[in-house]
Design a protein that fits this description.
Blueprint lengths: L1 E3 L7 E5 L2 H14 L5 H21 L14 E6 L4 E6 L6 H9 L6 H10 L6 H4 L13 E9 L7 E6 L4 E7 L5 E8 L9 H12 L6 E3 L2 E2 L16 H12 L7 E7 L5 E7 L5 H5 L10 E4 L2 E4 L14 E6 L8 H6 L1 H24 L1 H15 L1 H5 L4 H7 L3 E2 L10 H7 L7 E5 L3 H5 L5 H6 L3 E4 L4 H4 L5 E2 L2 E5 L20 H15 L3 E6 L8 E4 L7 H10 L8 E5 L4 H12 L4 H17 L7 H15 L3
Parallel strand pairs: 3-9, 13-15, 17-18, 17-20, 21-23
Antiparallel strand pairs: 1-2, 2-7, 3-4, 4-8, 5-6, 5-8, 6-7, 9-10, 11-12, 12-15, 13-14, 16-18, 19-20, 22-23
The structure holds adenosine-5'-triphosphate (ATP).
Length: 628
């Protein structure tokens, strides 16, 4: 930091950007952006945020500077001089705020993320930029030096001028500024001079900022149309306009999948316009707690009170974007009051009902849309089954499953399953694993396939936590086909003659001795058709997929013991019985038994090391290829 003199009146202080900031600026200016025009969107968005804050603070702050000043954004351009000025009457910044906001990167991890984008040679287009909290710096795409003059709305505040060429340093000096707010000015680079043309500014504002809540003037002309779309009735809404509005508020580049206007009068009065995005942002699915920070915007009598209001929707619905505007809260509510207000609780309850009804009617009337929605957000709404007990029944009806009877891309509901299952089937069966393909190959399915009994195939990782908790549907218990206590007594066709008891029991006994503590028991199977052995869980044991998921969360969790079931009609088992009666000490027997067990483990992804498995396999191949 060094001090220069400024005509002898007030010192100009020079500051260095933090190292991280320098790299970031370099990335922004030199490689990442494809649409320099978005600098204008970012500046307008900052001005609009600053105005929203002022409007909000004005509700309680009697001392605020320039209370009567119009809330507006004013742009001035000079095409000949290639200059640009944008001015707002927002909250402005104190000196500390200037340093904190325009000298550092707000969000941690931003730089790393941007660098990785660069390494992947991805371009940071306008759709991504808003998410990084670096919007202001996009201005360095179109200019070489920026001047920010600002004065905070706090009473007794002082004006400051911030200036930077985006090259590692910036300066700050005190100035006289008559009114609160911020004025940003610069001269365009030669290659960006188009942005000093009136038609271009107008075009960009219409494209990105049409729904900004404050008037945007270019000279005398207002460029945007401020309309509270959510105040209109359904038949006054045009899809095109609504879609544009969605993109604006949700920062999405795609149209929404669907939207729902809501108007409620009675115990509480509110209007809402809600949107289903087409896709779930990946972080929403995989980062725990991400949903917590989302929510629609809360307005009170058309004044924005909170941007991502968490209290309007239960967590499992917070992927829904939109606006809720009520008259039943006072304008000067604090965040704490919003949170605990009975009005909010009522709004949340009504909205949740409306939204679930919306999903239900999508499912009935627009099944393709519903499918897209379910694919994107199914894993999220399932969380509701364990958290929203009031709406559990409705959520259960929304569930969709792949099954042994659905073709790829089609799904079955519990209702359909229950209606089409045979009269003598008493239980609803499911099988959980990592993919439909892997599930279909599992020996535990053999009996069900042979008997034509439908089995739900659960491959969404969330399923093991929520589906078993349903317990029953339409009085029919839901049951994992891995359980040992399933009735397999019905058979379709003549089963091969089982091996005699005196031959079978030594086989089972030797299996038990060989596998020892590794299994809970070894028993004769009634479910297998083509495979020699399979693993199942005891009556009270965990489903294997469930166990795997729990282990991922708690590595010290002891592995539950499984039961090995043996298909006594299978040639391998018969051969083993023969070998045992000829010579029980033949080493091939133990090798084969271990191999069968580990093969079954392998199939369900439970084999931790393949070393023994492979060396045994070679041993067996060697024995099989021995010339006789
Ligand atoms: N016109 C303005 N009036 C008051 N404060 C401003 C103004 N412009 C920027 N700021 C302050 O500077 C900060 C940094 O702005 P920047 O655009 O870089 O990021 P952001 O607005 O926080 O995030 P994003 O770009 O994602 O909206 C803002 O958060 C705000 O506090």
């Amino acid at each position: 930091m060094s001090n220069n003199s400024n005509n002898g009146t007030s010192p100009v202080q020079e500051f260095e950007y933090k190292a991280e900031m320098k790299q970031l600026l370099d990335l922004i200016v030199h490689s990442l952006y494809t649409h320099p025009e978005i600098y204008l969107r970012e500046l307008i968005s900052n001005a609009s945020d600053a105005l929203s804050k002022v409007r909000f603070n004005a509700l309680t702050d009697q001392e605020m500077l320039d209370k009567e000043v119009d809330l507006a954004i004013r742009i001035t351009i000079d095409p000949k001089e290639m200059t640009f000025v944008i001015e707002d009457s927002g909250v402005g910044m104190t000196e500390e705020e200037l340093i904190a906001n325009l000298g550092t990167v707000a969000k941690s991890g931003t730089l790393g993320f941007m660098q990785s984008l660069k390494e992947q040679q991805k371009q940071l287009d306008g759709n991504l930029i808003g998410q990084f909290g670096v919007g202001f710096y996009s201005v360095f795409m179109v200019t070489e030096e920026v001047t920010v003059e600002t004065r905070s709305s706090h009473p007794g505040s002082q004006g400051f001028r911030w200036r930077s060429g985006g090259q590692g340093t910036y300066t700050i000096e005190k100035i006289d500024k008559a009114e609160r707010g911020t004025k940003i000015s610069f001269k365009f680079k030669e290659e960006s001079k188009e942005f000093a043309e009136e038609y271009r500014v107008e075009q960009i504002v219409k494209k990105y900022s049409n729904f900004v809540d404050f008037p945007i003037y270019l000279g005398e002309k207002q460029l945007n149309s401020i309309t509270a779309l959510w105040q209109r009735s359904k038949n006054e809404l045009k899809d095109e306009e609504v879609n544009e509005f969605y993109k604006f508020i949700a920062n999405d580049y795609q149209d929404p999948l669907d939207y729902l206007p809501v108007s409620v009068e009675g115990m509480v009065t509110f209007k809402a316009l809600l949107f289903l995005p087409k896709e779930a942002p990946p972080e929403m699915l995989y980062r725990q707690g991400e949903l917590e920070n989302h929510g629609p915007q809360l307005y009170v009598k058309k004044v924005l009170i909170q941007n991502e209001c968490r209290d309007l929707l239960p967590e499992y619905l917070r992927f829904i974007a939109g606006v809720v505007d009520t008259e039943d809260l006072s304008l000067n509510v604090s965040r704490e009051v919003v949170q605990s207000s009975p009005v909010m609780a009522k709004i949340r309850q009504i909205l949740t009902g409306k939204i679930l009804g919306w999903f239900e009617s999508l499912a009935k009337e627009q099944p393709e849309k519903f499918k897209t929605f379910y694919k994107a957000f199914g894993p999220i709404i399932k969380i509701g089954l364990n958290t929203d007990f009031t709406n559990r029944e409705k959520l259960i009806e929304l569930l969709r499953f792949e099954s042994t009877k659905t073709v790829d891309g089609e799904y079955v509901t519990l209702k359909e399953y229950s209606e089409r299952m045979g009269a003598d089937q008493k239980e609803i069966y499911y099988h959980s694993g990592t993919s439909k393909g892997q599930l279909l190959a599992h020996p535990n399915l053999e009996y069900f396939q042979e008997m034509g009994i439908e089995v739900l195939l659960l491959s969404d990782p969330v399923d093991v936590f929520v589906i078993p908790s349903i317990h029953e549907y339409d009085k029919k218990p839901l049951k994992s086909i891995e359980k040992a206590d399933i009735d397999f007594s019905k058979k379709n066709k003549e089963t091969p003659e089982p091996i005699a008891e005196n031959l079978l029991s030594p086989v089972l006994q030797l299996f038990r001795e060989t596998l020892g503590e590794g299994v809970e028991d070894v028993i004769e199977s009634h479910r297998l058709v083509n495979s020699p052995v399979t693993l199942v869980s005891g009556k009270d044991g965990l489903d294997s997929q469930m166990e795997k998921m729990m282990k991922m969360m708690r590595s010290d969790m002891p592995a539950g013991k499984r039961i090995l079931e043996v298909n006594t009609a299978h040639p391998i088992i018969r051969n083993l019985a023969g070998l045992i009666s000829a010579d029980p000490s033949n080493p091939l027997i133990v090798t084969a038994m271990k191999q069968l067990y580990e093969g079954a483990l392998f199939l369900e992804g439970g084999l931790d090391s393949t070393t023994g498995f492979l060396s045994r396999m070679n041993e067996l191949i060697e024995a099989a290829t021995l010339s006789r």
